[in-house]
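Revision sheet: structure tokens.
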Amino acid sequence: MAFVLFVAKKYKLCALGVLCGSKKCPAFASLRLCGSIRPSLNMIASLTSTRCPVCHALHEGDATTCGECGLIFASYAAAASAAPSTWNSNKQVIGAYTVERTLSRSGMGTVFLASDPQTFDRPVVLKRIAVGDDADALARASAEAQALAQLRHPAIPQIYGFFAEGKARYIAMEYIGGPTLEDRLSRLDPISNQIVAGHAYSLDDVLRWGEALGSVLIYLAAQPEPVIHHDIKPANVVLDERGERLYLVDFGAARPARQTTRLASYGTPGYAAPEQYRGASEPRSDVYALAATLYHLATDDDPSAHPLVFPQLTALGALGAVLRPALERDPAVRPDAAAFTAALRGLSQHRTARFLVAPDGSEIVDLDALVAWCSANWDVATQWLKADLPDQVTLRWGQTALADRLQTARTVPFANDDSALDQALCVLDPAGFGAEPVQLLADTDCLDFGLIKPPNAPEQRLQLHNPGPRCVQARIDLPDWLQVQVSTSGPVVRPQARLQRLNLPVARHRKRARPQSSIEPVLTLPPGTGIDLYMSAFKRPGRNGNLRSPIMLYIADVPQPLQIQARARYTRRWTEWIGQLIVVTFAIVFVALIYANVATLYYAWQP
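Predicted:
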């Protein structure tokens, strides 16, 4: 009783609350957080409530599952009653180690910072695992510790030993001093229950750390019995004090693949792969957790707030495309650690390279070189723009705004591949390429079809040519007595010109010209290409004598249309003359008959 009163006075707790275990008494919160009191109060600890480490909901001390978020956790009451420990100068002693402070508590166990007096007070990390009285659980814990002790990797803290005290098992591991990757992210402070504002890491850091952690997963998967960490998250990734080396810590939940159980394989919601909830974890489960961790680092969007959903994945661009396969819910289609790390390495190499790699292997170091290459390789450049040119501009030059404008240029309504590239080059070089005039030349300014003798239709060829560096878009407007056929076989056509580029619906001539702003470009001529238009003249009913009409070509970005005169003459045949003579004769006779009848009636009525 004296000890209870001493505890109540020191921690400002009411003695009644300590003894009776009332849920309304604030004693429980302090008793639960104070690891040094709990081993000496086994009966009281069994009555205390447990707070979920994820949603912080309160539960009975013997609860194993959170009723709010579904987290499976080891009972705090069971862990508290694990072993009788000794005291040394007001510090708890566990085995040969002196506990300095509690680092963390979670459903996977409690982590202490301790010192080893036998090695000149070397700092160590103690991980406490509650296994109870189950003999099989004890055997599994020993086998797991033995497997973990064999691990040797620069990014894995060394395991010093495994020992038991009472019903708890402890793993002693190397202590890595330094911040965790969680420290700079937005997070909930469990003490103040307030959100601590943070920010995402740079893409370079995320890729570098992803490669380092991927190498750890490759090493774990290559063990005779593949080891699964089960709890990869930013809080378990530590940087050394100089910020140069990265360590994956908290291997207390790690298990060989064949020894995983539902409780043992469960990690942190949001980072744990779906199969871990079923106790069917495998090495690719850690790949999922690593991808979720990199997503959190790159976006500052905590996956634990919405498990199995990653709303900002698309916004990550190329990194999101690498993470997406690793976040597949089906582990069968998920890449293994080697493939995932290779994808991250490839993305990192693309980003560190400060030159673009053209489809022909050329290295492009600046905008001027890019515009020159695209102009000289127009056909290939159109496909490059559709493929990964904007992504390369983002990753290798770091110009996200420019890449977004390239993306916009290739999605302009009514644009085809050639016009999209023209717009993109204008974006890249507005003062150079964009200032070049749009040129469209015709081989003549007048087409004379001569005499139209039906049923024959005379034909004339109109050659159009684009001599400039810009792509030409135009709409052709024809008079109603002309028809047109398209050909790209003329002498001014480049060998690589294709008929698919030419979509030329015939538009009839209108008395009132269509406004330039509303003209839809239907004729596209890339730089240096040409086209042959074969015009056929034919007789229109009611049109006689000489025919003279303009052929209008409305060119995009050119205020004045290109105008070509078309003229022809039409001569009637003798059958047409006879027919018209007969019609006139009948008309005269009809008029004469009407006049005679009217005159007869008039004189008949005269007195």
